[in-house]
Amino acid sequence: MLKVSQRTEYALRAMVELALRYGSGRVPAREIAESQGIPLRFLEQQLAVLHKAGLVESFRGSGGGCRLARDPSAIRVSEVVDVMEGPFYPMYCLEPADHTCFQDGRCGLQELWVDVHAAVRDVFEATTVAALALRHRHMAPENPMWSPEDLLRPAGAN
């Protein structure tokens, strides 16, 4: 199964929280952690990476905190994933430097993985942090806890 790291999950959650509070000033990391259920020490590491990448602005001291560096509608999920994960491939044979597969470049499965990679990348590129915040606001208006089963719809269901 294709999975992103918990590091990326937490980074996206932080970005959503900052998008929900966009234009309201600086947000302390502790508030983001509490609102999104992220361990503070782990969140601080992700915020540092996002700051270094220019996606988040950080301020120290009294009245410190962080905020998005740009409008959330101008930040794509792909930017966050790229910063947190680096090049993201669903199969090792797609990595440009990996030629360990004896079928390298001559395999119908490899073409399937290229299609999967392109589809996932398209979703990451097409989705903004603002869109994620809107989904979050719609799905969790008062932050109820959802199980993964609650969020997955059976095939064909609307």
Strand order of the largest sheet: 1-2
Helicity level, as a percent range? Answer: 40-55%
Rough outline: elongated
Low-pLDDT residue spans? none
Give the SSE string.
HHHEEHHHH
Radius of gyration computed on alpha carbons:
18 Å
- Count of distinct strands: 2
Q: Write down the overall mean pLDDT.
A: 85
How would a textbook summarize the main sheet? 2 strands, antiparallel
Question: Which structural class matches the secondary elements?
Answer: mainly alpha
Task: Give the DSSP E fraction (strand runs of 2 or more residues).
Answer: 5-15%
Give the count of helical stretches. Answer: 7
Describe this protein with a few key phrases.
single chain; 158 residues; mainly alpha; two-stranded antiparallel ribbon; 7 helices; elongated
